Input
Amino acid sequence: MSLNNKKINDFVIRFANVNGTGSASANFLFTKAIFRMGIPVTPKNIFPSNIQGLPTWYEVRISEKGYLGRREGIDLIVAVNPQSMLADIKSLRSGGYLLYDSSKKLHSEYLREDINYLGIPLMEMCNQNYTDARQRQLFKNIIYVGALAALLSIEFNELEGLLAEQFKGKEKLIPANIKALNLGMDFVYKNFKYPLEFHLERRDLLNESIMIDGNSACGLGAVYAGATVAAWYPITPSTSVVEAFSDYSKELRIDKVSGKKNVAIVQAEDELAAIGMVIGANWNGARAFTATSGPGLSLMNEFLGLAYFAEVPTVLIDVQRTGPSTGMPTRTQQSDILEAAYASHGDTKHVLLFPSTPKECFDMTIDSFDLAEQLQTPIILMTDLDLGMNDHISPPFKWDDKREYNRGKVLNAEALEKIDKFGRYLDVDKDGIPYRTIPGTHPTKGSFFTRGTSRDEYAIYTEDSDTYQRNMDRLIRKWNTAKDLVPEPQLYQKSNNCEVGILFFGTSTYSAEEAMDQINHNGLSVDAIRIKSFPFNKTVEQFINDHKKVFVIEQNRDAQMKSLLMIELQIDPNKLISVLNYDGMPITAENILKQVLNKIKSNPHIEKSKSI
Amino acid sequence: MSYIRPKFRHPELPKNKLGYSIDFYEGALSTLCAGCGHDSISAGVIQACYEMNIEPHRLAKLSGIGCSSKTPAYFLSNSHGFNSVHGRMPSVATGANLANRDLIYFGVSGDGDTASIGMGQFVHVIRRNLNMIYIVMNNGCYGLTKGQDSATADNGSKNKSGQINPFESIDLASLAIELGAEFVAQSFSGDKTQLIPLIKAAIKHPGFAFINVISPCVTFNNNVGSTKSYDYVREHLDATSTIDFVPEMKEITTNYEEGSSENIKMHDGSFLQLKKLAKDWDPMNRESVANAMMIAKLKGEILTGLLYMSPNTKDLHNTLETNDRALNSLSKKDLCPGSEILKTINSELR
Output
């Protein structure tokens, strides 16, 4: 992709920091100020599995066109980490800018003829202006934000406003921060030409948008969904889901009369126990959930099989990271799809939801609780590190006060009175979904024995082949019912008009949409569908049937979504062409475009067709 | 099948205060081996619940996997039951209890289910002091897979195929005391008079109550040389105490030798009348109990009775400061912050 010639509101800045030096809040200040200027901006944390000392990067893309995926090609790098400096300098595009600490002279190996150097004596300035060691470290970060404000035309009042919010109640810290910003700005004014040829201009492109990470959105969604029990085991990148749930609960879940909590959050001894608690709580009529990542999902397989077979509602948020095994714990991937879809031994299938924005994290978390109770089965929300741990611009959250929680088919004491004989696994409505009762409901009716062993319609243990098979067939009937209850896919065209389609889901959406734009700009066209859930419904099947070739974009090595489509919809493998990204970094539009075009070249059939 | 139960019940079976006769507390027909100790424990549970006037639907039975974990099907058929997965009953019980603090949670496990595959969950449920009864039906072997040694099989014990167990055994009662459990008892499936009051006291204890019941496996571990056989256990039992459960304040009539009897007041005003049999042992003193347990082990004795109890206990709900109302009874009105608050949250994210 070529650089935008105008270079206004279209560039990528990368910050190369040392983990644990307070850079995160300074970098966020930078991003949020741009957001406040009404310009689409998307930051990505590229961080190590480490608390202190290793290199960490923060990459910010600014895009007037609203492209929120990652983009290759760094225009300016703030290189304040000697450890990664050499690699950082190499990563800069030709003609790009290197902002570095010039307190010490640059070693000759750091010199490149084709880039511009912006040396600012950050350490010296800090030593002159601040006495405290920690302050010297922290304000180094604020000084470079000040310098960037001058170089890129960030409006100073936005930075000021953000600092005022950040230090509300600790106002005496504000002047020192303002001073640091000014130090950076003044140095640029005196020493460099400013602004740079790429810089910012205020726009009004964001309307009502908010900026938040997906994990916080999931945590807030769980509060709105009425979850009262959360059990979890800490694991990157899912930890902040339950932390957010806990934080929001501190404000929103205190009983007004007693001051006690309307929520129970337990840090379990492992993921097995975490999901066991969730299943126990849901079985007992509370809404409960857990959040984990790949390694935790592997451990939870046993219990997921129980919840599927015993038909206990369960909500699990899987914030995917790079596998297999421990993999790259702090990098992103969409590689738990098959694991989640068929988790546990025996014939099992699970409902999956694929959000792609924080708003969808919020909405789909709420939907997960409704679906889990409607379908009496586990619902797995398949988010990922990119969505979960990075801030994203998102449409605002919405809640309709008229919306009621859908608790599914639960019989209360009154309903039980009217029934002669309660059958926990009787398919009364022929939709595969039986009625359940909550312990403690009625003295003599509705009790049953929940078990992972085979049983008949009345929950009585059986090894009778016909009865077993009848139950397994009912579960498939329920699965088919689920197809009409899960979120519909998003179609990007009113009617299909190309021979070639692209299919994507989750965080690949940002870059897939950008790639579609590029295809359209080149006078070509392509149909597109975004999958939001599994099982696949008719719309997905129809889309694939209506196209000769479908590119399946996903972020894993083994084309897991393609496999799932093949298995579940009996699609000819040759019809689905994989576009894959599995380096642990979020997929880029450039990558998608390159792969799509390469595959077209090597496939004469598509090349001859009208579209693409 | 251990026994065929006649369906006929005398119409004038005595009724408890709730108007239920004992058959109301029974379960499905047991499919365990005839003479299995576990069936005696089930009978003890039935008797205890009947005598304590417990509403069966206000009690939830939970178990893992194994012979012992099958037993909840054989008592209290008017209670909800959850036969979960191997070694994971404590987590399911934890979730269930968090959802509704108003029910009684009755957990049943075995030595394999607790001391091996479920050891992690066992120690952590103790650590959290979940308000539940946790009974281990301990036979020192894996019955359902035909008699392999379990982790509670004693070092030197001979199994049915004549092999001597070379490994140290895990003493669950000592471990529970070590971990800070506040109600720890040990009993023998063949001693109903001791077991039933212990079950009653465990139900009344407002925190985690553990009862390790030696329950011989008649099929795979009842041979000469086994330290979990009926004969061996009977010969080596050393009862520390007998207890009588006194549900309400009333005159205590049983006479014990002066100085050996003690009344323990429980949280709800009921009493345990405890008669100490062992010398130099105080069931309210953890250090003394731990000591007595170690000495008994060295002597090859099995201490039974109420080993340790602390009436002042803080269960998980108290630690988490959850609402006194059961969480599963809260409605959207109690739980959902509503659209106005969401608007504020949105504005804070801009």
